[in-house]
Fold:
Amino acid sequence: MSPLLSISRRTRRTPFTDRVTAAGVTGYTVYNHMLLPTVFKSITEDYRHLKSAVQVWDVSCERQVEIRGPQAAELVQMLTPRDLSEMRIGQCRYIPIVDETGGMLNDPVAVKLDEDRYWVSIADSDLLFWVKALALGFRMAVDVFEPDVSPLAIQGPLADELAARVFGDEVRKIRFFDFRTFTFNGAELAVARSGYSKQGGFEVYVEGGRHGEPLWDALFEAGRDLDVRAGCPNLIERIEAGLLSYGSDMTRANTPHECGLGRFCDTRLAIGCVGRDALLRVAREGPLKQIRYLEIEGDPVPSCPEPWAVTVEGEPAGQITSAAWSPDFEANLAIGMIVRDWWDQGTKVLVHTPAGPRTARIREKPWL
Amino acid sequence: MSPLLSISRRTRRTPFTDRVTAAGVTGYTVYNHMLLPTVFKSITEDYRHLKSAVQVWDVSCERQVEIRGPQAAELVQMLTPRDLSEMRIGQCRYIPIVDETGGMLNDPVAVKLDEDRYWVSIADSDLLFWVKALALGFRMAVDVFEPDVSPLAIQGPLADELAARVFGDEVRKIRFFDFRTFTFNGAELAVARSGYSKQGGFEVYVEGGRHGEPLWDALFEAGRDLDVRAGCPNLIERIEAGLLSYGSDMTRANTPHECGLGRFCDTRLAIGCVGRDALLRVAREGPLKQIRYLEIEGDPVPSCPEPWAVTVEGEPAGQITSAAWSPDFEANLAIGMIVRDWWDQGTKVLVHTPAGPRTARIREKPWL
Structure:
């Protein structure tokens, strides 16, 4: 049985919380000290709708770390092993961020607003503290703060149609991980083609909480015949899509290479980011374990609130950190960290679920 | 109606979660990415029991930032405006931590384990990121990490009796905010006289998750005739006691002086902590608003999930951030930030609650 969530100012409400409540949210998590919906009707019903229509998601908890000033670009590059020298205004980049030993601190999306102004749209850790202290320690000419920006996602196969009705047809031309600015309610809002699903869609960076409810209402008004509904990142769909969750599938203990994010680490690492020395070592030796996808045999397993051990012939072979029954694939799909000896496609392993040990097979790629 | 909390690896379980579940927890919050119980029977029933017997609290979410190495003391002093030059091994100190502009980042308790080894027992923000980045930026000879330490609190008027039965009578001699080390289950555990209530008691720093359930079980076995129960920080009692909640009653926007923590800021500030320059300015001018306690007239008000405006004759006079009906004081008690013109004892203000505007009176001290 799920317990109730006690809400206080500390578990911050968002500009959309009243609308989300009216739409019948039934489950929440707390993400960056803020409410993030997890369920409306049921995870399965939300899933079917997400994959067939269009949803509006309150992802305000993707808080922004704004970095502004003459050394903004220099500081952003110091934060990540990904080479950002070619990044242009109007682009977004997924940037793993590591500490000095190469341990993952966050896996945010950087948004280049101007030559001297960035947002870093964060996963669930107080990256603001890391960036502020680095700026202080290295005496950089930047201002670092959390602006009043609350992303609202439009996700699903009908997302382009819905967004075009509200922002105009120009929105269809936005390329993946680019953003363009649109006027809504008298405000200039950045709209990016991005989101935490593989169903397509946008994230609107709602700058100024007062624009939240008007935008929400405009989307629902415009999308009535599209069966637009309130939704949220969906556990089943994000596992099908192989989208990792920082804090669940990876933690500070993991390197980007273990997370399958080695391709975002510039092999020359000439860029002098924090963690460079450790990551050069890691890149040379390769990881000893890595994120893999698994199909677990048998009846539906429960979700995975704490890691499940994976073994092969009684020996430790890794752990599962996310799992769900997929109606579309008619199988239990899972994400886990698997040791090198057993991580090849098709390898048979044993997963120790609360429903008992189950046979599972390794996949190198996700399902979507 | 409270929504359900969705639990994942990201909302970390604790060494005590199975025991807490068996004890009938009904409400949780998420604190430092970890489960923190908020309700067992009801907030009022839990409150009456806390004030009359003894409870065991899973406060594992008070995570530790361990700072170890030749420059550990130097770094801890850099973190806080409180003068720690007289702090001895075996002592705990409440240390406000601010950024370079004097904004509160956390209000943890520092625990001095050795001359070159400290724990910082944190409120709800990733202080680890701040400390690690400062250590990196200022190139300090320290190791900074989150150890496997999960505090378990013993709180209530019978706490001394219960703790003595498990740890021996020596535990009674521990002075407020001191700690001593006791052997339990073959491990050396630090036991401090501290806790987030005014009912008296201890916090046991359970180092090594495997000692969690044996300690929990030993406390319940030893305390059967004391009516020991599982409990948690109680909203009503902590407001009566005037205990602030970081993230609710104070945020990064506030200085220590606004939070009534000016007495922890060394007026000379010769110690060169982060934020020194800003706090010297603040100390000279005094805060424009400050934490106050209020009694709100009329029927019980609901709890305060987002700030309630406070006005005087239609003018903004501050905000309420925590509120609860107190059965013992037969009144609505509240904590808020009140502007200088209206913060004197006895001043009448108007609080805009969801149940309508209510008259309230300012208090300079809490109730317990």
Observations:
- Chain A has three domains: 17-62+148-239, 64-145, 249-363.
- Chain A is about 20% helix and 35% strand.
- Chain A touches chain B through 52 residues (CB under 8 Å).
